[in-house]
Amino acid sequence: MLFIGITGGVGAGKSRILDYIRENYPCEIYLADQVAHRVKQPGTKAYEELVCLLGPEAVGRDGEIDKGVMAEKIFAEPSLLKRVNDIVHPAVKEFLLERLALARRPGGPAFFFVEAALLIEGGYLALVDEMWYIYANEEVRRARLAASRGYSRERIRGIMSSQLTEEQFRENCSFVIDNSGDFESSCRQVDERLAGVIVQNDID
User: Fold this and answer.
1) For residues 60 and 67, what is the distance between their CA atoms, to the nearest angstrom?
2) pTM of the model
3) Are the beta carbons of 70 and 57 closer than 8 angstroms?
4) 3-state DSSP percent of the chain in helix, strand and coil, to 5
């Protein structure tokens, strides 16, 4: 089984690429944002630590961490962000490694994917077999974000400036998918890479 990290800038189309992979290959796919939400659910270690850090007022009526209250607290005290991340990120990694161990048992999927914009910064290069960079040029990404999410130019600029540069992504990734244009072309790039892995595994 191959453990593959999927990363890239906002608006590059990572989710759509993964939807295609999910529909066409034997795999397990985890989105780090969704896992982060899962590990913060009531009853988890991360939940208890966050409530201790943020105070009981951060718990909503449904018993879950109130994202709005947490954001307000971090805005008022920016140093809290690192402390929150120091709780959530290790919990996410622990969850993923547990799922990876299960997936590697006999009869498991051929591929195990994890997607996040911050995989490289989060130390996943040491864990994955391959790191893929989903690339799209900046003009395309801006247009997608404006059309699909209604983001303003200022918000798009702010998000992009906080992420790794194209050069940094390319330096740290072993495979690049150009998702700037025709999606069928992107799918062919995926097929060529994964088909090669499947053929090699059959030979081995």
Assistant:
1) 9
2) 0.88
3) no
4) 60, 15, 30
Closest CA to 181 of 121, 145, 135, 150: 135
Rounded CA-CA distance 65/184 in Å is: 40
pLDDT above 90 for 198: no
Q: State CA 188 to chain mean position distance.
A: 22
Handedness of CA 70, 74, 80, 83 (dihedral sign): positive
Model pLDDT for residues 102-130, shown as the tens digit of each residue: 999 999 999 999 999 889 999 999 999 99
Q: What is the 3 state secondary structure string of 36-63? A: HHHHCCCCCHHHHHHHHHHCHHHECCCC
**Token pair listed for 58:** 């951060």
State the angle between helix axes of 32-39 and 79-103 in degrees (0 to 180), rounded to the nearest 10: 100
Residue 110 — φ and ψ, nearest 5°? -75, -30
C-alpha 46: how far from its chain's center?
Answer: 19
* Residue whose token pair is 């077999």: 129
pLDDT tens profile 157-195:
999 999 999 999 999 999 999 999 999 999 999 999 998
Query: Whose CA is closest to 113, among 6, 17, 197, 37?
Result: 6
